[in-house]
Amino acid sequence: MSFPTHLIRNFSIVAHIDHGKSTLADRLMLITDTISEREFRNQMLDDMELEQERGITIKAKTVRMEYKAEDGNTYQLNLIDTPGHVDFGYEVSRSLAACEGALLVVDAAQGVEAQTIANAFLAIEGNLEIIPIMNKIDLNTARPDEVDEEMAQTFGFKQRESIRCSAKTGLGISEVLEAITTFIPGPSGQRDKPLQALIIDSHYDEFRGVIIYVCIKQGTLKKNEDIVLMSTGRKYNVDEVGVFTPARKATGVLEAGEVGYFFASIKTVHDVRIGDTVTTRLNGSTERLAGFKNPNPMVFCGTYPVDSGEYEDLRTALDKLWLNDPSFTFVPESSDALGFGFRCGFLGLLHMEIVQERIERESGITVVQTAPTVTYELLMKDGSVHLIDSPSQLPEVMLIEEIREPIVDAHIIVPTEFIGAVMKLMDEKRGEWKKTDYLSPTRVQMSYEAPLAEIISDFYDKLKSSTRGYGTLDYSFCKYRKDALVRLSILVNGESVDALSVIIHKEIAERKGRQLLKKLKKVIPRHMFQVALQASIGGKIIARETIRALMKNVTAKCYGGDISRKRKLLEKQKEGKKRMKQVGSVAIPQDAFMAILRLDDEETKK
Questions:
Q1: Which of 7, 66, 302, 452 is close enough to 406 for a disulfide, judged by CB 3.0 to 4.6 Å?
Q2: What is the pTM of this model?
C-alpha cells in the first residue's frame, strides 16, 4: 500500500540509557500489530547478542508500522530506535537526520538525567518536533509531579504537558500514538523530482554484500534501477528494495518520505559512506544532501591479534565493522612488544569495549588492546602544531614548546545531598567548576571543565560509587589547554615498552609510576630469570620494582660432600640465568596493559 507523504510520520525515541526506549518501541509494535504476541520478546529491535546481554541499544534500528488514528486515517509510522549512552551520540544524530519528530522519554522515577539533556538538544538542533513522554509511571518509586517540574525547568515544557505512560503495561500508549500522528509533521519531499536518498546506516552480509539503510528525501527508488553513489561515483543495479517490519520485507519501491533498505551486490565496503547521497544514473540529482558531520574519535588504543598470523583477518574484520560504525577509525601500526596491529580511535571507553567484543564474536579473532589514550596537541618550537594519539609519538622534550590536552564540558546530574562528593571527585580529577543549575529542589546539574584523560579512566565508576548510583554524566569536547604534561615510560628488563607508556601530569607522575609498577609486578608472571621493572621520565629513572626469578633447587641431589661442589652448581645456575635474561623475552599479559586504567590512589582506598 502506497502512503502519501502527509500520512507518513518519521520519528525517533531519545532518552537517557535505561529509561525505557526499547520497551516503548516494543509496545508500539505490539499495539500497531506489527508483531504478534507470539512473536514478541523483550528488546525486539536490539537483535545484536551484545545488546541483549547488556540491556542497552548499541545500533540504531528502523521499523515500519501502520496505525489507524482517531481521525479515521491510516498512517505509516517509521520508527528509528536510538542508543542512549554518551558514546553512541553519533548513532543518535544519524537517526534524527531521517526524522521530523522525536519522542523525548524520561523515567518517572529517575527524572531528567545527563544524556536526556544531550539527546534532547540534538533533536532541537535538528529542528524536530519534540513530544515529551514520562515513562514508568506504574513504578512505586515514580514521582511524576517532581519530574514534571524538572522537565519544565530544563526544557521549557508547560506543566503536565508530557504524556504519562508505562511502556511495560501499555498504559497511555494509545495517547502516544495519537500525539505522533497529530503533532509530528509529514516529510516534505516530492516524489516527481530526481532521487535523493540519504544513507543513514549499512552493514555487510556474507551473501548479499553491503546492505544500505536509506531515508528517501526526494524522488523514488525502485528495484532493477541503475543508481550512483555520489561521493565515489560508483554505479550499481539495485537487486532488492524493502522496509523493516522489523524483519526485512521486500517492497520493490521506496518513495519520498519513506525509510528502508536496498542492496545492489556491492562487495567493496569502502565504496559505501554513511551520509552519502544515492541517486539514479539516468536523470539523477546533481546536488548532494548535506550528510553528517564526521565524529572525531577522542579515545585511542592499539589493537593487535594474539596470533600474529591473523593480522589480515583482523584488517578485514575492522573493514566490515567500520562499514556498520564509521565513528571509529583505524590505521596500521607496529609495536616491539606486540608485533603488527592497528591504532584504533573511539568515541569513548564503552565504544572501545563494544568494538573489541564485536570483533571477537563476529570474526572469531582474539585481540589484545593496549591501555587507552587521548589526542594531544603539540606546539613545537618552530611554531608548527601537531596532533598525537600515542605516547610513543611524543618527540624529544627540547623540540616542544607546550603540550595541550583535550578538555571536555562535563555535566553531572545528582541529588543535592551528593554535591560535596562530586566537588571532591572533580577536584581529584583536575576539574574546574563552571556553574550549578537546580533542576528541582532536590536535583542539580553541575557543570565542569575537566581533562578528558581523567574522565575516560575510572571516573564513571567513582562517580557512581560516591553518589550511590544516582549520579549521571554527559560530556562533549570543548578545547585543548596547555598543562605540565610528561611521558611516563615503562621499562621491562631495560627495554622501553611503548604500549605501556602514558602521558601524565608532572605533579602526579612519580606517584603514579610507583603505583603502576606495583600493579605490573602482580600481573606479569614470574620467569626463570629476574625481571626489572622501571619507570622513567625523560631518561631519569623514578621508580623500580623487581620480579623475582623462579628458582630450581639444583643442589637437591647433593648429599653431603664438599661444599665447593654445591657452590659450583649454584654458580653454573647463576650464569645460565644471566644468559637467559639476555636472550629471553618477557611475556606481558593483557592485564598489564589494562592496569594503566586502574591507577587508583592506594592511599585513598585505605
A1: 452
A2: 0.73
